[in-house]
């Protein structure tokens, strides 16, 4: 036996109205790994994330996380196992401060008014301060989240996910709409997060993917077309054809 995979998708397929959005997809993520997923529009990237998080059930194939069969679990149970997902659009509480957004996430509270009753322990304060440093928002902690830039909102939401201590973080197009400086900072941020957590990041921005400096999986028509270092896959004629041809 080789080292057990953290996440293992094997020969997964799913059809919508007869159309195979995922078609024999196999992908293995090692513990502690960060993986970038790229692929043209409609390649199946979002559907793959939906399958991992239990939003979509595969028709065939197996999906395991630390040996647990994810196809038998619902979304809350999968989140509970330690898989956190960051969607493309940030959904922070705009009227609340950055600090209170993190506090809510830390406490797992759903209703902001309950913050009034939240008593912070020194450990919780330390954790929020740690999150603020990670997400580059230490100087913005008292600011209303609604006043942050788009990129900062994305970071805040990443911080809110980290508050739940996921072992695996799934991130969907984090740098869409970001400035170049924010994009570069986000690559550094994810690399830092990857020191302690596994990460799967879907992204179209190749400069960003290059900065991540991790193994890249290219999806096409619901399956893996190529996998390896960015320079290798981007010189693969099949990949070039998919991106430039047709
Ligand atoms: N619920 C659904 N019903 C019908 N078709 C769907 C559904 N979800 C996805 N599809 C189809 O499956 C294919 C894969 O879609 P998916 O959104 O996973 O691709 P993607 O790689 O994430 O694309 P993009 O880069 O545009 O986000 C597409 O052709 C899409 O139209």
From TrEMBL:
Pfam families: ABC_tran (PF00005), BCA_ABC_TP_C (PF12399)
Domain ABC transporter: 7-246
Superkingdom as given in the UniProt entry: Bacteria
Single GO term (MF): ATP binding
Keywords: ATP-binding, Nucleotide-binding, Transport
PANTHER family assigned: CONSERVED COMPONENT OF ABC TRANSPORTER FOR NATURAL AMINO ACIDS-RELATED, HIGH-AFFINITY BRANCHED-CHAIN AMINO ACID TRANSPORT ATP-BINDING PROTEIN
Name by which UniProt lists this protein: Urea short-chain amide or branched-chain amino acid transporter ATP-binding protein
